[in-house]
Amino acid sequence: MRKLIFLVFLIALGPVFGQNKDEKQIRAIYDTALLDAKGYDWLEYLSNQIGGRLSGSLNAEMAVNYTKKQLDSLGLDNVWLQPVMVPKWVRGTPEIAYIETSPGKTTNVPVCALGGSVATPATGIKAQVVEVQGLEDLEKLGREKVEGKIVFYNRPMQANLIQTFEAYGGCVDQRYSGAMEAGKYGAVGVIVRSMNLRLDDYPHAGAMSYGDMPESQRIPAAAISTNGAELLSGMLKLNPDIRFYLKQTCRQYEDVKSYNVIGEIKGSERPDEIMVVGGHLDSWDLGDGAHDDGAGCVQSMEVLRLLKKTGYKPKRTLRVVLFMNEENGLRGGNKYAEVARAKNEKHVFALESDAGGFTPRGFNLECNDSQYNLINSWKPLFEPYLIHLFRKGHSGADIRPLKENDIVLAGLMPDSQRYFDHHHAANDTFEHVNKRELQLGAATMASLVYLVDKYLK
Amino acid sequence: MRKLIFLVFLIALGPVFGQNKDEKQIRAIYDTALLDAKGYDWLEYLSNQIGGRLSGSLNAEMAVNYTKKQLDSLGLDNVWLQPVMVPKWVRGTPEIAYIETSPGKTTNVPVCALGGSVATPATGIKAQVVEVQGLEDLEKLGREKVEGKIVFYNRPMQANLIQTFEAYGGCVDQRYSGAMEAGKYGAVGVIVRSMNLRLDDYPHAGAMSYGDMPESQRIPAAAISTNGAELLSGMLKLNPDIRFYLKQTCRQYEDVKSYNVIGEIKGSERPDEIMVVGGHLDSWDLGDGAHDDGAGCVQSMEVLRLLKKTGYKPKRTLRVVLFMNEENGLRGGNKYAEVARAKNEKHVFALESDAGGFTPRGFNLECNDSQYNLINSWKPLFEPYLIHLFRKGHSGADIRPLKENDIVLAGLMPDSQRYFDHHHAANDTFEHVNKRELQLGAATMASLVYLVDKYLK
């Protein structure tokens, strides 16, 4: 009887022992992240010593060299650069835009060329403006009301959506496809309201596309600050005949060679199964890219450092990948997946951080139901760290090309309320990243990697 | 049979219908808070047009008048001022402090007098420094090692605590009681490391007390910035004989008359049962008090506006109370409870917001188990708004004097990671409050008030 009781006791405590070990490992990860941080210092360098890292720029090259050197210093098993050809788009001299109410009577407004846009003629363009609330308005207006004009896309982000990424998703077609669509109706240029929930004076950059439109038909596209958009819209209501002037000198060059930066710890038991953690090293050029996505890069580097520092040796091979060119091409993400497939590498898990360095709230997961249920069962381990959200949803652009049967894709989900105040704008800068928030994100990622490594079948 | 099925159907849908109504009301509250915000504008005025609102100051008086006027404009049933005598402590001319390594060789460091401290002599004090890690070190050192010296309290906030208020609670005794304790050992002054998790140059003010120590024995107390504390500590390690100079001209005046600002909507069914929602109108003087606690005041005002605007008429009387003098006396909170008891008012619920205007995460609750279980059962209604935390814990200083049998006390719990970067310092300013985060907090409070009004027995 005694023996039986003892056995029951052991069985009952079994999962508790396991739990306790996990609790301790996770506690050690968070403690190290908060008491012995490294990610924040790396971000300081990337942001303040290097700055904006647009694909193909000198800064992007410096960031490749700097992060490789930092990974080299961590004592990983392998660190290497994976070559990838990337687009090189250059903004040129600062853009100029103004509203002209009558000849010579002008009001300057803050704009920036959208990434991938063509330049205006050297003397700029000046035309009447037609304001629309989205792509679908063009068909209603028809060619005669659009031809020869500048189309002004002014549908704002929907402020009552709690998750700001949803509000972004509901607007970004104007930026991405606005010029291509307006060009079909004979517009001479487009102005897009910045993807920003706040009213301020920052124009927000971002990628746009002409699809397969011939070069001769491409029209210039620029973002206008939200205050500028409000002003322009208000003035159009008073006088629909006002004109808008835009001058930008941006240019697309030939593709240039760049790199994904990769480091790995070889798995102790299943070295052929690969787990990836990453962010993208490139950024837009207006700010220093601290939130988008310097934060995700240094958090990903931290994951390997935190696991090493806390003495955890992954059973599977753990790779950090700093992807190049997420912003205007996704070449790095595509190249990484292409090479992985060519080498027949088996990827079981990939985690991306690309939603800012704010307080972590949970994860978006792309996986099957049984994988989801497994991950969701770890919720109690995360609750002491105020991590509550485990839901199905978009993981991350750079890891998405890895998607195939059985791989678990995850995206860190930080608090999103402030993100679009800074996203792609001149105020995406280091001082807006809080050290604790950044480091908590890194610890949250490292804890998920630890649990996946240990418990994923 | 048909009838029975229909009946079962009705019963089954009963709670769902109720749920749907609650879901709709709460959705309307959040929509209004985000699409038709008022709190953020009020905060802009309080912060930028008025500024820091230390009890007894002209600014505090202006804030009383401004908020009363705004409440008047909301069409409430009653708005009034509740007189309360408050302490009047004035900082005087900016403090001066430096470290002297040898005669004439000095390094200035940023300090501020702690609230309630006495001044130094007009020529300042200069003395050797003894660094301690807390009050308990004084006994170990004994009078001979303390007498005639400046005691430097340098125990930092514990960075690996996830909830920063816990880290604050673990340090603040140095600030509050440091001078009183050091005075007993013959110290001539105290310098306290700022309650700040970040390394920066802002000294953080805050209340201190001499207990019932005679005036003649009181010694001056100042906070030093965290960078200053690190520097001083480092220099002491190199040379324990360095001297510290401090000059401050602060002064405690006679108590002056001020006010709690109160507005109410009379309950439609149970007017004698009172629900309170509030924050404190006073602040420290170095910044503009936007987070502490301008945010809590305007969120509390918003609660009444949001319920009115969404057409909800409370069954119980709902009061907003903007308490005066939380920071250095709690006179407003005590006065409100005293008057309530004298008038035999029945308070069933009180909710305070005094932890910054950051993204809301949940509530701290002081209540009995059945009340807790009721409130916790509303969790699913809050989840779409990313509100997850319903736990027992400290509600709020101003509403605590109302504590007695059966009353439910609650404190809004925002994300706390950045709070102590700004708390009581010159950088507690409007630009560090995010409009969405502030308004989400107001909506979260209004939703809780709605559910309490509807479902609390």
From TrEMBL, chains A, B:
Coiled coil: none
GO MF: carboxypeptidase activity; metal ion binding; metallodipeptidase activity
Cited Pfam families: Peptidase_M28
Gene3D superfamilies: 3.50.30.30, Zn peptidases
Signal peptide: 1-18
Subcellular location as annotated: Endoplasmic reticulum; Golgi apparatus; Lysosome; Secreted
Ranges of residues in domain Peptidase M28: 260-448
Keyword Oxidoreductase appears in the UniProt entry: no
Superkingdom as given in the UniProt entry: Bacteria
GO process annotations (BP): proteolysis
GO CC terms of this entry: extracellular region; lysosome
Keywords from the named record: Carboxypeptidase, Endoplasmic reticulum, Glycoprotein, Golgi apparatus, Hydrolase, Lysosome, Metal-binding, Metalloprotease, Protease, Secreted, Signal, Zinc, Zymogen
Annotated InterPro entries: CPQ (IPR039866), Peptidase_M28 (IPR007484)
Keyword Glycoprotein attached: yes
Binding partners and assembly: Homodimer. The monomeric form is inactive while the homodimer is active.
Protein name as it appears in the record: Carboxypeptidase Q
